[in-house]
Amino acid sequence: MITFAELHIPIEHFFYSLLFIVLTLILSKHDFYFIVNKVTMLIGKLSFSMYLTHFFLLDLVKGMMNSEKVVLQENAKMT
Fold this sequence. Notes:
The mean pLDDT is 82. The protein has 79 residues and is an all-alpha fold. 76% of the residues lie in helices and 0% in strands. It has one domain (5-78). The chain has helices at 11-29, 38-78. The chain crosses the membrane at residues 14-36, 42-61.
């Protein structure tokens, strides 16, 4: 059996995770206006949509950078 000390997890992280679990359980049962309101819901929708689109943008930029490298390498060979 593995003890808590053998996991090498800082004790603060353990307590933060417990606090997060308790907060999640409380929020799943009751809406607190200071946490769940129109502003925080808007921020959540915006951040989630940015999270979903950033993968596409990263691939697009990577593709543009790779094609630019190819053009630069071809131009360097010509001179």
